[in-house]
Structure formats: structure tokens, C-alpha cells
Design goal:
The chain is of the alpha+beta class. It is built from 19 helices and 28 strands. Helix 8 packs across helix 11 and helix 11 runs antiparallel to helix 12. The chain starts with a strand and ends with a strand.
Length: 745
Amino acid sequence: MACTRDMGLIVTDRRSYFSEEKRHCKFEVLPIEPGVPGFRLDNTELGGKYRIEKEVFADPHRDVVLQKIRFVPLTANIDYNLYVLLAPHLGNFGDHNTGWIGDYKGVPMLFADFPGGLALALACSAPWKKMSVGFAGYSDGWQDLSRNFQLTHEYQRADNGNVALTGEIDLAAGGNEFVLALGFGGIWAEAAAEARASLLDDYSSLFRDYVSQWKNWQKGLLPLDRNVDHDLYRTSTAMLRVHESKDFLGGVIASLSIPWGFNKGDEDLGGYHLVWPRDLVETAGGFLAAGAVGDAVRVLRYLEATQEADGRWPQNMWLDGRSYWGGSQMDEAAFPILLVDLLRREAPTALGDLKRWWSMVRRAAGFIGRNGPVTQQDRWEEDAGYSPFTLAVEIAGLLAAADVAGAVGEPQIAAYLRDLADNWNENIERWTYSSNGDLARQIGVDGYYVRIAPPETDCAASPTDGFVPIKNRPPGQDLERASHIISPDALALVRFGLRPPNDPRILNTVKVVDAVLKVKLPQGPCWYRYNDDGYGEHVDGSPFDGTGIGRAWPLLSGERAHYELEAGNKSGAEELLRTMSLSANGSRLLPEQVWDTADIPDRELFFGKASGSACPLVWAHSEYIKLVRSLKDGKIFDQPPQTVKRYIVQKQKAAHWEWRFNNKCRIVPTGKILRIAVQAPAMLHWSKDGWQTAQDLQTRDTGLGLYFADLPTDAMDPGHIVVFTFYWPEAQRWEGVDFSVIIQD
């Protein structure tokens, strides 16, 4: 939970000078050491009047953030007065906070709390000269100082609102040097006790303990940074770890930041302070790539504990497992299976007995089998339909689950999962490859994979596209909505081993993706998520407010680099690694998006630099680590071997063509067995001659919540029509509807 909005310093001369650190300084931020998330900041006033030197880290033993501050006057003609301004946002809420001036055991402090058991306390090693608590924008210290250049009001308390705490620091008492301790707890006394204990402890010892603990963890990682950006590799590993909860071990949130948080209200409590199972598995992959095996296993155990009874995971969730958005995504059920498989390859001893994980894998595979292949929403949380990315993850997950099933003595389940994966794999092009459209002709290809296709769409006969590529759109004009949306997501078919990188359909899609979504930035090429993306700032740079224009994602440069590596273009992959590195900000944090057009200094938007989106994005840091590892190994680190062997090497074809209520196929290719799959025991009543004769088949239990019966359509001639219906013995009723499938070349 976010518990503060910000905390900074204000400098005045009590007469006419007012300077706010965050608005009126230039900043230099340096890590204490690479991979140690403690920072030294030199903030120099733009006019050269003062410098603020900070050392910021967390007490390694307590819930306290420490800031050792040295105030350096740079001119002699100013009577410097220093104030700290803290904006509590306890429980992710700006509202309903209460602030007051008080003391703990005789030590004056500034306090805030929030209903439900959250509190903070701000203490200082130097004495407070004055203190005040007010409502932000009305009676807070900023209003007083900006108008009067000193605290003229010393309000004692502000109840149930958006509050701000202000304290004047006695600079002379500490020789212009002091320590601020911001403590947190369930109630005010706990927060105050934590803050006071930190101040009473030896600061140098706390600093050494903090640094040594991080250095010891870093020593256990693989030294992958010898030939790459040393700082960013180590920063990336640290970013993965600092986003893990200390209360729910293995639970790693998407970002400590809130995208466009300065424009958000209390209606969006989650921000990115949530767990996305997809991002979490990507994070575990980053841990593994760096050699942090124990950290990856903790993630798997967290996923095991938060799996829903039906086998899925929430689309996103609070750290305690409660669903936030309430949605469901098929790839998020498959990713944890792939994590088991990756650990099985990379760290079998740490994974332990596969039987321990079979229950989780079985339930997840059953959920995919019952509800796939159509995704409820794509990986960007937006549209439902057939998605190349989701299909790739689902199919890879089914094959990985089949391997686990075989290893624990469940050969029938393994066989069914492989049959299902083969069927979905053979349908990918029919579901998601668009041909004969205007865009394909315009670019000179015969087709391309679409980002997502509606469930009933047959992409092989696509309508006219009608596109305006992003880079050609007039300023301020929305993209014309296309029949098919383009996305780099299709490269997941290569990343997860379903298609070779030189497959003509993949090469066609790469041409289309580059024509429509590629943007050249100062650091190198980057890509948009898809055309007509509305997640980003508006044309004028105003923040995303539910609408906007999607900007370029450094993460996608990493994904493209993995494709280039698989295609044999290692130098191209290395250049894209450099692009990712140069996309990081001064603190070496990778943003979700970067600004893709002319500078707007008033909004702090600069060409090629971080936008107002999430920063850091943990997924981006994980992708960077995995790319470093992949380049070292000369192959994609997290590519499942099952798909490569089955579909690229062995070129396995499907023996079965599956019909199900959530994916009713209308045709069965000649030579294929029609498999009817349902979610309850049934008697299949069917005919191959228009009900002149009929036969009955009892469904068989797969052990995954699915029941199936196979019809011998593999020997039938093209043009033959099979009709069937169901009798449900548990409900003792007939379906009452006939279904038909035609045999077709």
C-alpha cells in the first residue's frame, strides 16, 4: 500500500524568498553501490543559492525510511530556514487521513493515521522549531510558507481529509546536518516507536547493515554484467527484489509507482500496487536468469497459495490474493505451469518432487482445457478473442503440463493435453492470420498475424483493413479503427517455440509490425503495443485519463531482441539491449513507456525519455535481465523446449479436431478425428447419414473436468456431414439442439 504521496524540503528567508526542492532544483541521483537500492541525491537550487545532499535508504531492521540530509548554503546573504513537507496518503487514500502534532515518550513528532489500522510518524534528529498540520491546498504549510515565507500558523490537528504535515528544522542545532526518520505501523505508537528506535540506533551501523545485506544477495547472482551496462543489470535485479512483499513472500507487485499518479484520485486504489500473475511469472523468470533460484521458488509458492479453486488466478489481485479487477485471462493460467517447467530445467533440486506441484499444474491445465482457446482478455487487459500471444502461452503450457503429468504417472491426462495442444497449434493461422487485406497489399506481403481476432472470425478471408499507420497520423487525429489490429504480440509464436523465426508468415508480420508500430527514438528503435492504442498521454501531453495515445514501450524492444537472437541476428539483439539501457532514467529505472514526439518541457516530457507511465516497470527489468542471459547463452533463456521439438523439429500434426460449446468448429479437415469435448458426463447421439441411422457414444473422463468422445471422421470423404446431440445423464435431459460439422479438404 502506498502510504505517502511525497516528502520534500522547502527553503525560505522569512521575508521574500521561497524555494521548493522538488520544483526549483536540478537533481543528481546516484545509487550507493550498483544493485543496492539506497541513493545519494545532490539537489542544487537552479539559481545556485543552496544544495541539499541526501542519503536515502530503509532501516534494515524496522519499518522506517531514513534520510540523512546536509543543507549547504551557497550564498552568504540569505537567512536560510528549512522546512520538511510530508503528504500522507495512508492506505492508498489521499482522503480520510488524520494528521496531528504530538509526541512519543516526550519526543515531538508529526503523525498521521487512517481508519483500519495504518499510521505514520515523522521524527527528526534535530529539534523542531515549529510544526503545523493542515488540509492540502487550504491550510497546509505550503500555503503558509509560499505566502508568508514562514510558518505563521501552528495548527495542531486536521481530521479526516487530505492532509499535509510541516515541520521547521533547527539547522543550527545540528550544524546543518540531520536525519529524518519516517516510521510506519498499525497505530501511531507503533510508527513512533519504530522511528524513535531508528534515530537512537547508530546510523553508520544501520547503513552498513543495509548495504551489506544487499551486497551479500548480489554476490549470489550470476555475473552477467561483465560485458553489459553494469549498473542497469544490478539495478534490475534489485528492482525485482524490492517489489516483493515482506508479508506475502513471493508476492511481487507490478510497480511501486502509480502511472500518472499526480492526476489520480482515490477511485483507483490499486494503481500498479497489485500482483498480475503474468508479470509475476516474468519476474520469476528474471530471478532465475540471474541465478536467484530461491527467489523464483518463493514466487512459485506464492502462486500455489493464491490459485483459485477452479485452477485460474485472478487477472490481478491484492497481495493477499483477493481479486481486484475481477477478470480472468487464459495466459495467466498457463504462465505458472511454464514457471514449474522452467524451474524443472534450471533448478530441479530447488523445485523438488514434481508430485508436490502436480495439483497446481493439473488444476491450471484443466482451467485452460475447459475455457480455452479464446482468451477472455488479451495480455493488455482489453479485448477477447483469438490472440497469438495467448495461444502461444496456452499451447506451451499444455505441453509443459503434459510432461509433468507423464512424470507423475498420469499418461492419459498427458495424452489428452498433447492432443489438445496439437489441435490449437494447427488452428493458429486459421484463427489469427489475415490475408488479402489492403494493408497486406500496401506493404507487399500476403498476410500477417493480427493482435486479436473475434471468436467467430475466419482470418483467412479478411475484409478490407483501412489503416492509418501511427507514424503517419496527423497530429491530434485518432487512428482509423482497423478491421484487424497489428501488434508485436505475434512474435510470441517464436518466443514460445511454436513457429521458426524464418516462417514466411512471421517474416510478413515483422514487416507489417515495423511499418505500422516501429518508432525511431534517440536511443534506438522502439515499438508501440498496437495501433489505435489509447493508453498514454494525449497529444498535448496531458495525462492519460481513460483516453489518450499509446506511446512506445522499452519492454517491446527487449521482446523484439529475443526474436532477433532466435533469428540469428545477435548483433541486432545487442543493439536493442542497448536501446533498453538508454531508455532508463537517471536512477537506472526502466519506464513502462517513453515519450515519442517533440519535447513538452512544461509537462516534463522529453523525446525518448520516460513518460508519466509506471516507472519502474518490474516486467521491463525482468525482460532486460532475461535478454542479458539469453545473449550470454546464445539462445532464448525461457523458451520451452517442448514446443520447439514438437512443432518445429518434428512438425507434429493434429490427429484430432475438437468441438466444444465455447469453440464450435464448423469443419473438420479430412483425415482428422472429430473429438467432442464437454464439461459434464454425456451420451453422444450422432449420425453420419442425416439421422437415417444413429449411434451412441459415452464420453470418457479426462481427469481435468472435461469429458470427450471421438467420432471416426478420419475415414469419411470430403463433403460428408456429421450431426450430433447430447443426453446429459446427471440432469436426465436431452440437449434439444442438433449440431453439425462438415468434412472438408
